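Students often ask what a 'structure token' actually looks like in practice. Rather than answer in the abstract, let us consider SDR family NAD(P)-dependent oxidoreductase, a protein of 276 residues. Its sequence is given first.
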Amino acid sequence: MNQGKTIVITGASDGIGAASARQLHREGHRVVVVGRSPEKTPAVAREIGADHYLADFTCLDEVRKLATDLDTAYPRIDVLANNAGGVFGDRAKTVDGFERTFQINHLAPFLLTTLLIDKLAASRATVIQTSSVAARLARKLDIDDLNHDREFNPLRAYYAAKLENILFTKELHRRYHSRGISAAAFHPGNVATSFGTQSESRLMKFITTNRVTRATLITPEKGADQLVWLAQSEPGTDWEPGAYYEKRKRAKRVNRQALDDDLARRLWDRSDELLA
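Now compare that with the structural description of the same chain:
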């Protein structure tokens, strides 16, 4: 196991992001805490003696500033964990004009990764996407309607975004593995965190706040296991880059679309176009 890596974790002010930050700090790594909350983010950072950055992924200018700040502050970034995400309810557009589930879960981490791509390649970095088993439920992905303008449903938008995380991982591997980047996506398990509690979706709110359903969920510490494992272990030896993982193993059951090389390429190209 390599010690002393510089590991950037987004969505690290709570849940599995914060739990991962604590575990990786205990293992001797230099953790960089990124979060949206001006209260929780510095609190987690102070607890482990880490640097922290505030960035709200509903604003792409904040993502651009984050990328610039990280690139300036760190000579190398060994791991970028794109962990920030969320599931919401009523359809809403961000200040950038994108549907917020799509922007927060896919477009913002796509932008952050691509802005840092030269630093990540030079560092031979691992890039990790926190996806979800919910990707299996995604309907046919419409590259021409990633904002769900034609038909919006909060859970379908989330399912699509989690599929996009896997497709992004696949295409990141195809484009940049030869330059040294190792990419992986994973499902953390059904975790008892604040994730989903602010959703306007009645179903998601019930699942994440009801005492009976919460009793079936795992702790953030257990949910952080795979992120910590992927961050510390050796790509190509301990796990295969470009793949999606569940329970530290390459997932056997996936949405068929997650295997579509052409769809992954088209998603990347369309994301680029939207950001241009």
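One point worth highlighting: The beta strands are 6-9, 30-35, 51-54, 79-82, 126-130, 182-187, 243-246, 249-250. Ask yourself how you might have guessed this from the sequence alone, and why that guess would often be unreliable.
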